[in-house]
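job 3f2a | input accepted
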Amino acid sequence: MTYSVCFVCTGNICRSPMAESVFRARVEEAGLGDLVQVDSAGTDGWHEGGGADPRTVSVLRDAGYHSAHLARRFETDWFAGLDLVVALDSGHLRALRRLAPTAADADKVRLLRSYDPAATDPDVPDPYYGEFDGFEECLRMVEAASEGLLDVVREAVERRAA
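job 3f2a | predicted structure (162 res):
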């Protein structure tokens, strides 16, 4: 049975597609590609059907990640098929927990930076209105948290297999 992870930010063109690409690469490197499904969405539908922000694509490409992305809006009924919903900031966390149809679904929502023991701020700042270096900083935060997240997902996958 596949373990499903969905990363969520506001418009699904900057932070969440970046997290999706980085985490998918980590999953593949760990040999879990057949066992873990990774995708992303936004809390709002402003950019639905559009690609990732060109700055996101550039930062990912320069760091060696692949990104083929179309923005979409997170739907409440997705909770049933997801094991983990990863919010990129506290506002997304609150919005997703309000959307959750059950307490069990609300418990699936976690902040990405909670998986980075060195993080002092729980949020990945939105780089959209800033300069290019904000996208580079976003990538560093996503990469740092992805290692801890991979450990948690690997353990969950191993428990299912046992």
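job 3f2a | The two ends are 12 Å apart (CA to CA).
job 3f2a | closed
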